[in-house]
Amino acid sequence: MQSTSSSVEQRPVRWGVLSTSNIGAKAVSPAILASSNGVLTAVGSRDLLHARDVYSFTPQTRIYGSYQEVLDDPEIEAVYIPLPNSLHVEWAINALEAGKHVLCEKPLAVTVEEAREMVDAANASNRLLMEAFMYRFHPQIEWALERIHTGEIGQVRQVRASFAFDIRGRDENIRIKPELAGGSLMDVGCYAVNFCRAVYGQSPVSVAARVHVEKVGGVDMTMNAILDFGEGRYGLIDSSFEQPMRQSAEVIGDAGSITIPVPFTPRNMEGIVFAMKNGKMSERKFAIVDQYQLEVEHFADCIRTGREPLRGLSETLENMATIEAIYEAAGHDWPIL
Q1: What domain range is 33 assigned to?
Q2: Predicted pLDDT at 122
């Protein structure tokens, strides 16, 4: 006869999603449905009819006309929060206080202070909280970081990371609304910040930065920063909402380098990593995977086993502190709420 604890571990985690955002409806919800250890139980939206239309692909999922109804559902064990950045702290804390585990989109909060409030709420409720940097679960990133950390390219001296796409003329896009805590650094530059932290395993000791803001009171449309990690180790990062779609990551050591052409969103394509050592280039290819599915499966596994998520909250707080430092170094008042 199977033990009770084993039965609990094998029981799928029942998920709720707050809002009908594109990332939730088109990426994470399908990932939950495809996962080996989760089920999409409910979705909450301020527009009930719209939510029913968006989620018509999963008729077995309950659709509620508010976010709070998802939190009030006693069957929901974990919630995914893809709301605008400015709403993360409110609804994450609401969910944690309702006894739900929380997977919250990046960046976790708008400020370090908000992030600490969320961490305190998670600790007080004895529930898990994780920032949703799905790219960290892709095998190409795990493989690259393992090679870097075992010294295969020697001492790392420089990291370059970029993420940009063009949304000029899309004035209604939430990414460029200051009241929703938008901005290129908050939306895509945070990936570059996170990648540098993942490589070096620490926060930068100092930051220099510039941002381009189109109008007074607006968000940063482009960001460039130099992160100094001490002892001759640097991170050169940039993000933009006014450049062609591109992303890349390169790690340069004193004995070689590793380049990841599409580090953050390699959807529906093979992953590939190039390694240069002793003047010879080699490549490693990775099969197409759903990194969102790998992320939600990891989080659900942590819920069932009691293990801490691999992406810890101390790293999250350090990332938030670096984002704040970049805005301060650039002379950009933040947050603009």
Answers
A1: 4-132
A2: 98
